Description:
By secondary structure, the chain is an alpha+beta fold. It folds into two domains: 2-208, no CATH class; 234-437, Alpha-Beta Plaits, CATH 3.30.70.1230. Helix content is 58%, strand content 15%. The chain is built from 16 helices and eight strands. The protein has helices spanning 2-5, 13-20, 22-46, 50-78, 80-87, 100-124, 131-175, 190-219, 221-229, 251-257, 260-280, 306-321, 357-369, 380-385, 388-391, 428-437; strands spanning 235-248, 284-289, 292-297, 330-346, 349-356, 376-379, 394-400, 409-414. Strands 1, 2, 3, 4, 5, 6, 7 and 8 form an eight-stranded mixed sheet that branches. Helix 4 packs antiparallel against helix 6 (100-124), helix 11 runs antiparallel to helix 12 and helix 11 packs antiparallel against helix 16 (428-437).
Amino acid sequence: MLSWLLPEERPDEAQQRYALRYPLTQAKVFATFWAIAVVLFFVLNAVVSLRLALSVATTVMLGGLSTVAVGYLIVERLWRPISAAALAGGAPDRPALPGVASRSVLIWLLGTGVPVLGVLLVALDPIGLPKQRFALTVAILAGIALVIGLLAQVFAARSVADPLGGVRAALLRVGEGDLDVSVRVYDGSEIGLLQTGVNRMAEGLRERERLRDLFGRQVGADVAARALEDKPRLGGESRQVAVLFVDLIGSTGLAEEHEPEAVVGMLNDFFGDVVRVVADHGGLVNKFEGDAALCVFGAPAELRDAETACLCAAREMTRRMQQLPEPLAAGIGVSAGTAVAGWVGAESRYEYTVIGDPVNEAARLTDEAKALDVRLLASARLVEKADEQEKACWQEHEEIQLRGRSAATPTFRPIDLEGNACGHQQTPAEAANSDRDAEPNNASA
């Protein structure tokens, strides 16, 4: 035992099983010495009387059985630190000690059944005892049955209740949302397998929560929640959405003039502001496309007055983009209309996205906005759907012939970037989503 315990090494399978079965091994040692005593006292008393020798040997045997039972429970309880060390590397495939049912029957048999059997034997063969001596013998055996039986049952109950109490406490913490739990495994029976099972369950839940958090950071909390509630299927649905597209200016030169690590750091700072602003207004950063980001308001979750929220977010984001350190700068385009929102790709790999005319229009407006001082353009149909307070922050710009479109697009530019007239108010659900989405500095970039 000391060969692996003192150096704190992990035991092999044979060493582990020997350590777990040590209480049973010690019980066999107890039984061996009591068996020697049975033979010894039988021989000593057989010189006087064979009948007396049988009576004494039976008495010694019954006392030995009860002592072995209680001794096993005491050793098992004192041996828990060693069992815990042996089980630190994992539980065996099958129990090394008697299970709960076998243990309960054995304890009753040896702790209560044996003394009661002694009473029965005395009653059947009193060996010529006087009446008072016979009564005293029966009383003593009955008292032993009560004391030893109670002691054995207490130890047996504690051997089950203690580990189950630890399991119950761990499950309560898991039920309250605390997944950082671990049950100390120190039992070589099926109870130890239960303790190990709880630890594996908690580990699986932690892994699931980590994947869920990672999934939410990749696709957005709303999309992740919807994917977990309903199994994603290829296809989508028509939704009225507002779209914001933001794109860095001069990213090619930025990559030429700076080290890749520095470029990634700049992009993460840039996208961190994008994520926070969009989340604060109830939107979703749908995807990052190199040095650009596509942001959606109104999908997958419904958003009250998505157009106003989108315009307000665009003005705040533009104000923040103007504070970016050199040489960072970005253009922003916003639009609104009917788009298809859903899962696009193949059965083996797909993503949630928004496809439609407002997405294309916002991307084209972003290119045009890069040439303006304010670097922000909005489509007329988006501004017209906003509330009056938000409309007051915009003025007509000009009609622009966007690439790939047959008709010119009326556009608006902001006249107030401070956002004092923003009329969008977050709902509690939007605020909760904002807190979740705004946690990272978005390492996805």
